[in-house]
Amino acid sequence: MSLDELYRQVILDHYRNPRRAGHLEHPDRHADGQNPLCGDEISVDLCIGGGKVVDVAILGRGCSISQASASMMADRIVGLTLEEVDALAHRVKALLDIEDGDPGLDPDRPGAALGDIEALAGVRRFPVRVKCADLPWTTLEEALSGKA
Amino acid sequence: MTDLSHLRKDFPILQREFDGHPLVYLDSAATSQKPTQVLDALDDYYRRHNANVHRGAYRLAQEATEMYEGARVKVARFINASSPSEVVFTRGTTSAINHIAYGWGLYHLKPGDRIVLTTLEHHANVVPWQLITRHTGAELAYLPINSDYLIDTSRIADVIDERTKVVAFSGMSNVLGSIGPITELVAAAQAVGAVSVIDAAQMVPHMATDVQATGADFVAFSAHKMLGPTGIGALWGRMERLTEMEPAEGGGEMIRDVKLYESTWADVPHKFEAGTPPIAEAIGFGAAVDYLEAIGMDAVRKHEMDITAYALERLSEVPDLTIYGPMDPGLRGGAVSFTLADIHPHDLATILDQRAVTVRAGHHCAKPLMTVLDVPATARASFYVYNEHREVDLLVDALDEARRLFGVT
Q1: Contact of B210 with B228, CB cutoff 8 Å
Q2: pLDDT in tens, A47-84
Q3: Dihedral angle, C-alpha B257, B262, B266, B272, nearest 10 °
Q4: Do B344 and A16 touch (CB under 8 A)?
Q5: Would you state the torsion angle of the CA atoms of residues B279, B280, B286, B287, taken in this order, to the nearest 10 degrees?
């Protein structure tokens, strides 16, 4: 059943136990994201060093999809180069069907290479919820394109 | 129990199914469904009577004008206005309140004056007044709600003082269901010489409303929440207030004479109806009023109290569910806000929708109230004449499914 696909255990786990929740004391980059329609909120703090993400903290409130997506993102991007983060964001957006492109495809398991993030694929059947899953990634891109 | 189930056949949309689940429409506080009688009135107007109103020299235009003005007579009678001229057609409640703010407030408020609102207001009765404070230097003050989710009348003396020129409040909350203390607030406004404004978007559709008996100066409401079309509503005002009010919009239809550098206005209510009005919508509004009058507003209210009592009872049985609003159906309408455990209302709405149970999730255009309640959002089920007890049962079953999916035990 599609609801079970949407609300997989891994989503609920990230929702209830968000990883890297909070703020960084001295972030190099920061952005706040809001979805005015449903009120989801996410803040993203990043520390960058040697072209890589060396630390990240996220804090937000909102639905399970937006908050789990943020938690998975935070879990995943530490240690990645900025190019890798950018590529990952595009793959996630492809997974969510927001952008064309290759989410890392085995056609039977879209996004399998994305780890926990693959669980977000369930949202594609719920078009009004796609923006919830996308909010942290768009906020991340905004953080990367500006200074704190 | 007031049985209105015979009405359901009049609402074609209630036949819809989603993935085999019949539509359970529980979002009438956002907009109501429309009976065939209203749809037919729109269709008949466009097929047989379509012409621009007023000024037309030919018979077709005369028919359209008579139908448009006839709708005004129906709406006026429905709310017991002393004259149809006291009913101004607007785009809806929001537009009606903006007319008051920009047509009355802008010309009568000055620095130091006070506009009193309440913390449970819909944004439509907050933002226009915020805009007017920028133009006039008047300030806002708020009456709070009490622990029973009602406007706190014990605070009236603290907030409504001699500086107060406007008291604007909800006749029935779109979030909590709470019925406004009209008698107390209108009396307090009158005692200090302030005008009183009732945001009646939820009130007029759900209970008999006698605008003269309220004592208020202005009452605003929308057709689409009372079985009528979108894009039309009404501003009722006492004639003396409408006479001293300026038009917030200028253009065709609203003038007596236009010269290069100045113009004079048509009489009330037409001076407030610039441009070609929503003619079909007004006629549909009239048909909706006819439909509600045929049911009888006392029967509408009785049915609503009955189904609301049942919903409150059934929802109270759901573990970990919190209801935001009065528990006495006599003090409230049929909008029931709630949260369930740690499940965000948007997740709840998605889950319920899989069974075609439609509830609204979010701040319900009442963000200040969400702050007071200390929740980011609520889910809201709301009822109208076509809803039945079995639909409440389907809602409760779907909430059990949500508990299972989220592993709430």
Answers
A1: no
A2: 999 999 999 999 999 999 999 999 999 999 999 999 99
A3: 140
A4: no
A5: 170
Residue A87: Cβ within 10 Å count: 14
ipTM: 0.88
Contact (Cβ atoms closer than 8 angstroms) between residue B347 and residue B406: yes
First to last CA, chain A: 43
Interface test with B, best of A7, A10, A61 (most B CBs within 10 A): A7
Note the pLDDT tens digit of each residue in B321-332: 999 999 999 999
Q: Which amino acid is at B119?
A: T
Q: Determine if the pTM surpasses 0.90.
A: yes
User: According to the CATH classification, is domain A2-145 in 3.30.450.20?
Assistant: no
Q: β-strand B255-258 against B114-118: which pairing, if any?
A: unpaired
Domain boundaries, chain A: 2-145
- Residue B346 contacts A, CB cutoff 8 Å: yes
* B406 interface with A at CB cutoff 8 Å: yes
Length of chain B equals 409
Within this chain, do residues B282 and B311 fall inside the same structural domain, yes or no? no
Residue A89 is which amino acid?
A
Q: Which domain holds residue B162?
A: 39-293
Element (H, E) at B286: helix B279-295
B45 and B121 housed in the same domain: yes
Tokens of B324: 């935001």
Distance, in Å, from the CA atom of A144 to the CA atom of A138, rounded to the nearest integer, reads: 10
Please answer whether residues B64 and B279 qualify as being in contact, where contact means their C-beta atoms are separated by less than 8 angstroms.
yes
